[in-house]
Amino acid sequence: MSVTHPFQLAHGADTLHGLLDLPDGPPRTHPTVVVCHGFKGFMEWGFWPSLATLLAERGFLVVRFNLTGSGMQPGDETVTGLEAFRRDTYRREREELLAVLGSLEAIAPGRVDTGRIALLGHSRGGAEALLAAAHPDWRDRIRALVTWGAIAEVDRFTPEQKERWRRDGELPVVNSRTGQLLFLGPGLLAELEGERPDLDLEAAARARRAPWLIVHGTEDDAVPVADGHRLAAAAADPKELVLIPGGGHTFNVGHPFKGPSPQLIQTLNATQRFLRANV
């Protein structure tokens, strides 16, 4: 059994909203997994609650939260923070993830084993988890890294898209789940067109020291499986690449969640095996 508790964390002028999934039983410290959702994702999307419950039942404390750039508040089904979504950047997301890592003992007093911390991210959240694992303050403190369908390059926009972005000051994107029209603002474009050695994911793959499980679906049409191979090729040891046959970007499940697919079950099994062996 496990229990779920909400938390809030002040970060500058923003408030990060999150959920703690705790193993049931007397209060004590637990190995901890910090989860980072992807672009247009949120902490309550699809497979995240099931993953958190599974890991909590295996003895892990799971910390999941909404990046402010998701524009989502707890319980939201659509983006309500349109301006928050518009001002999102990779560096903003990374700093929020680092803020959560640095505040674990305040978020869950007396429950975090600070010597046994892991990161898990999906898609763009996988990139943020990798960047955090490679950060000088954390590369010797993260015990394990797991990425699902992670991107290998932060600039995923065409020249035509960026020209429109420069011209209009924003770039429209559609949330395929809800049909909602959203806009990316000029901050992200400036970040992509500026100097960004701190956002070099292949360099981060070489710099991070934690054992790394790279999971990627062979039929991922959002982030091609070539990205998984690219990250694995760049990564320093120890690393492990697991390909999920027939797996799409979300491992063949959606939101609302209607139960696990065979591809998600394979992903969950590989993930819990890896975390139990390394954290």
Describe the protein's architecture and organization.
The chain is an alpha/beta fold. It has a single domain (2-154, 197-278), classed as Alpha/Beta hydrolase fold, catalytic domain (Rossmann fold, 3-Layer(aba) Sandwich), CATH 3.40.50. Helices cover 34% and strands 25% of the residues. The protein has ten helices and ten strands. The strands form two sheets. The protein has an eight-stranded mixed β-sheet with strand order 1-2-4-3-5-6-9-10, with helices on both faces. Helix 9 links the parallel strand 9 and strand 10 (239-244). The longest helix is centred in the last third of the chain and has 17 residues, at 262-278. The chain starts with a strand and ends with a helix. The mean pLDDT is 98.
